[in-house]
Amino acid sequence: MRRKLFTSFVLLFCHIAPLFAESQVVTYPAPNSEKMQTGYKVFANGKPVDIYKALSQEFTGGEYYFCYFDFEGPVEVKVVSAHQFKEKPELYPAREFSQDGNSIVFKADKPFTTCLFRKQRESPLIIFGNPIEKDIPNKDDPNVVYFGPGIHVPEKPIELKSNQTLYLAGGAYVKGRLNASGDNITVRGRGILTGELSERFSSFFVNFDRCNNLTIKDIILKDTMTWTLILRDCDKVNIDNIKICCSRMLNDDGIDICNSSNVTIRNSFVRAQDDIIAIKGMRGKKACENILVEDSILWTDVANTFRIGYECEAEAMRNIVCRNCDIPFYSINYRDPTDYWSNTIIWLQPANEMPIHDVHFENLRIRSDGSDIIVLSANPRVTSYKGSKTAGTLRDCTIKNLSVDGKKGKFRGILYFKGFDEKHDVKNITLENITYFGEKIKADSPCVQIGEFTSGITIK
Fold first, then answer.
1. Has residue 156 been placed in a domain?
2. Do 377 and 416 meet the contact criterion of CB atoms below 8 Å apart?
3. Total-model pTM
4. Considering the domain boundaries, does residue 166 fall inside one?
């Protein structure tokens, strides 16, 4: 009997041991002055994960929290809240977890971002589970600008030129700004670049100007003083797995795509007070085109999730796709769709004779907290940008598989269509499978508002 039990134990161990051998977790100690000691504790496969704060002065406490680690194979994440959960905690996007008092545990086997809400927007925790970092640049390479673990305060903005790489190592906390211009530039690493030492509107935070073949991945940007990540006249841009932890002040747009083309944004987290993805034409006639946003979490506190067309000098904005994105929170301010500073999930507002066409949204998941928001405003406008005197046109756009779930409360979710005049109209807009709290929206639903100077508006 003993031999049989021993043999069974050996067989079981041989089956389980490889699972542990394949599991790897890498954590990065935070500088002591930046490590949060209260609020939450996080463990990944038993290893403590240091926590940082970002500012969000619109809400109780004036801050929220985030942490990061790398892993490969199965990982068990334990979160201990310093405060009792006054309501049922929530992980978003939704995932299974177990709760024991003020602790929760969940598991993952692939890279993830998850948001823990213990009371809506008040002091949430964002957890970034990254893949194991590979091919780390050599800090002695003359084309590598390298920041190792610890606090760094550059005297001047970081400047990048063609064929250079900026690398922020895990545990690096850089208080500075970045300007880049040229070909084949890369910005990467696990570290943090923060604008906390800069005054409001004092300068741009992370500015890419006339970059070709640009890669930005994995880094964390926080507490900007103005627009966060800016692309101006750029082409062939790959943005992957970045984290923007802002909301320190208004005008902190998450990602501004200005007169740029062939831009891909994926696997990213963006939180800001102001617009999250803003597509602008601000410098000459170069079109904004061939833009893809996918597999990301997009969170605004005050403004718009997508704002396309307010600044309109470009020849056109076209071939823009957003798919498979989660929207955990939208603007706290409801404003009517006729308001000049309205707030929406999707705002398409061409001006200055500029056409917007072939813009497509698919698989958007909106989490309602019970407050109202405009889901779509398709509305050419005259704007205040550079004395605009005419509107633009809007053509051939689709929204497919958009869902709203959560608390119904006061949520109406207006879908608003209105042209400016006969010349500056809205034409051929198709909405398919739009559902609010499990109910499919139809053409005669109360939330649908179709005004004048529109044609070919289809809701199915």
1. no
2. yes
3. 0.94
4. no
